[in-house]
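4.2 Preliminary Data

To establish feasibility before requesting continued support, the project team ran the inverse folding procedure on a target of 81 residues. The structure was first converted into the token representation described in Section 3, and no sequence information of any kind was made available to the design step. The complete token record follows.
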């Protein structure tokens, strides 16, 4: 299917094109979000632990477990070490 790019000045024109697309056989793709919004999203951390890290929260995680450091390495790295 051939492509065509249409430049419009306001949202009303976009909605009109979307309405026309129902009657004629063409597809209207919405514009990509502004680059600024993407950069802002990448800079914000969705993980709250990373904002205020507390490494002591993991202290004793293996306490009472029958596992050694060598076992952990072997499970994590397999034959790569």
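Position-by-position output of the design step:
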């Amino acid at each position: 299917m051939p492509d065509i790019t249409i430049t419009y000045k306001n949202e009303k024109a976009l909605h009109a094109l979307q309405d026309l697309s129902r009657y004629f056989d063409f597809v209207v793709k919405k514009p990509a979000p502004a680059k600024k919004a993407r950069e802002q999203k990448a800079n914000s951390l969705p993980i709250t632990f990373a904002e205020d890290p507390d490494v002591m929260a993991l202290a004793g995680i293996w306490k009472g477990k029958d596992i050694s450091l060598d076992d952990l390495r072997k499970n994590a790295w397999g034959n790569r070490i």
